[in-house]
Amino acid sequence: MAEAHAHPHTHEEQKKFFPTADVKEVGPCKLQIRVEITAQRVKEEIDHKYKDLNESMAIPGFRKGHAPRNVLERKFGKALLDDLKFELLSGSFEEVKEEKKLEPVGEPELEPEKITLEEGKAFVYEMKIEVRPTFEIKNYEGIKVVKPAVVVEDKDIDAVLKGFQESKAELIPAEDNVAREGDQLTADFSLVVDGKTLETGENNAVFLTPDVQFFGKELPEFYKAIVGKKVGDVVEVPVQLPENFADKAAAGKTAGIKTTIKSVKQKKLPPVDTDFAKKQFDMDTVEELRA
User: Is 152 within the bounds of a domain?
Assistant: First the structure.
């Protein structure tokens, strides 16, 4: 069982989850990693999320910042835990890579939908990563090599930095509650076929992008219909159900995805400044980072 980390921390500092990790070699260039974050750290993060939510959301019937925890849990609990789960996965993996000096090739193999996050329990998950093979090269002295010229343009650097900003983005409630491209939408979804509701899902979170998928296929119509809508709006978007849909009577039919928007969150990107260069790349200036 993992022990609680003794170091104090604040959310004003760079967030640390202090995971423990067990790394095993399970094949050529392949490692299996078991990661655990203590129940205490999980509770701290959940409490902090609810505190932020309470201070930023106006709940009908309560003064801002004074809504009871159980009311917030009932309305936003699933979406909040889903958000936090992915923060824990991403953040703890970065810490494990740094601590164990791992250099993965490609994305880790894991199944987020099978990973659970519960208050009062440690957050535990396993994944597999591929790493570069190690070679011992002999008798290479004296070999002449030609170093190819590589031209890196400003746009290439900007694209890489934007990717790092995106990976470190914080999700914050949209002040005007209006949905825009790239926002995270929390909504209740109902699948309606021939006027009858077949399936429902409450407080499901999706990112609003043109390639958003439903039933295994991209549905740009959903993206177009939701952009510009606000919290409280109800929108129904048509979708063609696949031939292998579970309900055979509805397979292949045109259905409607009835969407009731519950909340909208925007990505707050960290600025590319001296602090960003120091924390993320251990460089003293932005100019050094771009060099």
Answer: no
| pLDDT at residue 215 in the model | 67
CB 235, CB 226: distance < 8 Å: yes
Q: Please list the ranges in the chain whose pLDDT falls under 50.
A: 1-13
Sign of CA pseudo-dihedral 9, 10, 12, 18: positive
Per-residue buried b or exposed e for 167-205, using 16+ beta carbons within 10 Å of the residue's own CB: ebeebebbeebbbeeebbbbbebbbbbeeeebeeebbbb
pLDDT of residue 169: 80
User: How far is it, in rounded angstroms, from Cα 240 to Cα 208?
Assistant: 19
Residue with tokens 């760079």: 14
Q: Which stretches within the chain are classed as H helix?
A: 39-56, 69-100, 154-167, 220-226, 274-281, 286-290
Residue 216 pLDDT? 67
pLDDT digits over 1-11, tens only? 444 444 444 44
**Residue closest to 5 by CA, chosen among 18, 22, 14, 15:** 18
pLDDT of res. 141: 80
C-alpha 94: how far from chain center: 13
Same domain for 108 and 178 = no
Answer whether 231's CB lies under 8 Å from 242's CB. Answer: no
- Does residue 56 fall inside a structural domain? yes
Same domain, 105 and 205: no
**Structure tokens belonging to residue 193:** 């076929």
User: What's the pTM value of the predicted model, to 2 decimals?
Assistant: 0.45
Q: Which domain holds residue 200?
A: 173-268
For residue 11, being part of any structural domain is answered with no
Which residues, at least 6 apart from 30, have a Cβ–Cβ distance to it below 8 Å?
128, 129, 130, 131
CA distances (Å), origin 223, targets 20, 154, 214, 219, 291: 39, 31, 11, 7, 38
